[in-house]
Structures are given as structure tokens and as C-alpha cells.
Amino acid sequence: MRREGERVGSPRVDGRGGVAGLPPPCGAQRQRDDRLEGQHPPSVGLPVVSEQSTARGETTGRFPLAALLVLALAIFVNISIEMLPMGLVLPMSRDLGVSESAIGLLVSVFAFTVVLSSTPLIRLTRRLPRHRLVIGVLLVFAAATAAGAVVPSYEWVVATRIVGGLAHGVFWTVVGAYAAYLVPKEQIGRAVAITSAGGSLAFVLGLPLSTLLGQAVGWRASFAVLGVACLVAAFAVWRVLPAVDHLADVATTETGSIAVPVADPDKSVRGIVVAVVSTTLAMTGQYAFYTFIAPFLVQHAGLPEAWLSPALLAYGLMGALAIVALTLWLGRRALAGAVLCMVLMLATMLVLVLSTALPLTIAAVLVWGLAMGALPPLLQTRVLHASTERLLQPAMAWYTTGFNTGIGGGALLGAIVYDAAGPGALPWVLFAAVAISLVLIGFTTHRRSLAA
Fold it and tell me: According to the lineage, what is the superkingdom (predicted)?
């Protein structure tokens, strides 16, 4: 039996849905857990596709809802931890004796660690079983988060965020591509919508509840609870998520892969680059503003601090509604959906800049949450659709790098603008970034239509 990760190039599929030259896959066997994962392959002959693992596009005829929900749970916990300082800016700054912008920079430290480490780490771990790798990075993430609850100073909190960022970079690169191995290409949009629901729920439940907990009993309790939640996610991955036959980026006798020529990858690379750059720009603007959403709403818009957690909850609920829209319509029209979301974000930023009425400000924040809830999974779907099989893992590494460059750069830019001009100037940063991203998408789409 072949170890996970060993693969025979691009198998030829026969008319019955099986792989030519190999026995047809057995649905019952595919549904078994990966208890046999890690056994050694036969010493001679061609490797056989594992009954416990799945290559991209191969399915058992059943939509893998349970596996996708476990991925959503893991994403929920990870995003909640990544965004944790945003809702705790005020209590953390008071307790640690640092400025509010310094707490915002914890998001930048985390994100830039992801940017610098994700590509080299994913190359170092490319032959490791994806299933075990996800469990391992979740355990590291849990330890780093729990440590954040007990460290004595701001500098030690920074250190825990660096360790968490190292784990998160590997996690997101692997998990971002995992759904593509569980479903056929035409179902990628639906699968990504389900897994992305975990990210939306992080805004719906994770961020508001951790904010509420931090206000009630201290910010350290929020870190401790999410550290335990990360352990629960690791256990769920171990029990439920199936192993996958991930693609090796090089063919060696060690992996058992066979090199296959790839038809001119230029178009695929161009599509990936446009999606990644658009993502980077949009996330830069988003996190320049959202990192400091608490002081914006409390100090600039006049929202009572006790209402902050309900306001963030409402923002997240709108993101959850966006995920429902993704599964019904937008997921099948990723480009149109992304453009619509960006236009809505531009409109809401204008309202936030011009409005002096708190109810209108809250309404604009809710529409912003709706648009932002849908945008990242739509951009991720664009990356997956643009990728060839050979470029799938590198594409997700680039996407992760771009996304976290936006998070880190945005939080840093937001801290600079916040210190220089106050929270009222932050909506303009998001407006400018999304406008540039929209122009880029429009320009490349126009060029493609002319070429056709």
C-alpha cells in the first residue's frame, strides 16, 4: 500500500470513472479512516493509489460534508486566534502598558511571520502526509496560543505570535488546497464556501465572544480558551478528516511520482497572479481599517464600549449570510461576485467617511460585513480554478503569502495612519486599496476579452 503523497503523474480515467490500468476505486474503502496511513509501499512495481487517500478530482460519489465541516472548524479556530488582538486592543494595551497601535502590530507580526515562512516551510514539508501535517501545526498553534495567556510582558506576547505565525503559514497553505482534493473541480466553489464558513464564523462568534470574554474576565482568558479550542480542532481532524494524495512538486524515485509535461502554464500563472495581487490589495485595506475597528466605533463613531461585542457579532452575522449567498449563486460566478463585493465595500466606506449619525454608521458596517464575508472565498476560488494540478500547492502558497502580506501590511499601515490622523481616516485606506484592486481586475478582464 502506498504512502500518502505518492502519486502516478496524471492518471488516465476510463469510461467507468476508474483509473486506466488500475482496479476501479472502492467507495466503501475510500470512506475508511487513515489507520493504515504510513505503511510502506511495495518494493517493486508501480505504486497503487491508496484506498484511504484521494487525489485531486477523485470522489466516491458522496459529497464529503463531514470532512469539509472539520476543515471549517479548524479554520474557525485559526482565524479567531489570528484576529484575537483586534477585539482586545483596549484591555491588552491597558494591561501590558503599551499603546493601542502596538497591540495592532501584533497582527502585523503574526502576518509577516506567515509571509516570510510559509513558502520555505511548505517546501520543506511537501513530502509529509497532509493529514498528519495539519494535526501537527494545530498542536503547535494551540501551544503558542495557550502560552500567550501566561506570558508576563508584551515582548513575550510578540514571541508567541511569531510561533503561531509559523504554524499558521503551513496550516493555511495545506488547508486552502485540501478541499480541491476532496471534490471534483465543478464543486470547488461549493466546497470552498463551506470551509470558508469557518472564517466567517470566526467573525460571527470567535471575535465577538473572545472580545466579550476579555472584557468580562480579562484578555488572557480569551487566549486560554482559544488554545483549548485549537486542541479540539486537532482531535476532530485526526478522527474525521480523510488523508489525501497530494501532488509533489517534483518527481523523484523517493516519492514514487512520475513527471508529466505540463501544457504551457503561462495562462494559469497569469490568472493566479491577478487573483493573488487583488487579494493582497483588498486585504491590505481591510486590515488597515478592521484592526482598529474597536477604537473607530468607540472613539470616533461614539458607540458605547459595552455595545462593541454585539456590533462585531452583527458584522460577523452578515458575513455568514454572505456564505449562504456563495453556496446559492456567487460561488458559481466567482469573478462577478468579487466585483460586486468590492463595489459594496467602496460604497460603505464613503458612508462611514461622510456619516455623522451612529445608526447610519452601524448600517454601513453591516453591509461591509456582508461584502467582506464573501470576498476572500471568492478570490480563493478564483485561484483554485486558475491553477493546474501541478501549480495547486504553489498557488495556495502564493495566495497565503499575498493574503497575509495584506493582513500584516494593512495592520502596519493602519497603525501609522491611526497615529498620524486618527481612526476617522482609516476608511479612506480601505477605499483606495479596493479601488485599485477593482481597476486591476477590470483591466485584465478587458485584455482577456480583447484577446479572445
Answer: Bacteria
pLDDT digits (tens, 9 = 90+) for 197-237: 787 778 777 888 888 888 888 899 999 999 999 999 999 99
If DSSP states are collapsed to H, E and C, what string results for 298-323? HHHCCCCHHHHHHHHHHHHHHHHHHH
Measured from the Cβ of residue 444, the count of other Cβ atoms closer than 10 Å reads 17
CA separation for the pair 175, 392 (Å, rounded) = 12
Report the topology of domain 63-245: Growth Hormone; Chain: A; (1.20.1250)
d(CA 364, CA 361): 5
Other C-beta atoms within 10 Å of 316: how many?
24
Dist. CA 257–CA 6, nearest whole Å: 6
Please, which contacts does 39-46 make with residues 24 or more away whose CB atoms are closer than 8 Å?
Answer: 39/1, 39/3, 40/3, 41/1, 41/2, 41/3, 41/6, 41/256, 42/1, 46/8
Q: Does domain 267-451 have CATH number 1.20.1250.20?
A: yes
Phi and psi, residue 13, nearest 5°: -95, 130
Report the alpha-carbon distance of residue 390 to residue 240 in Å, rounded.
27
Length of the chain counted residue by residue:
452
Beta bridge partners of 13: 19
Residue ranges of the domains in the chain?
Answer: 63-245, 267-451
Q: Mean of the pLDDT values across residues 355-376?
A: 92
Q: Under a CB-based contact definition with an 8 Å cutoff, are residues 372 and 250 in contact?
A: no
**pTM of the prediction?**
0.68
Q: Round to whole Å and give the CA distance between 134 and 13.
A: 29
Q: How far, in Å, CA of 103 to CA of 85, rounded?
A: 7
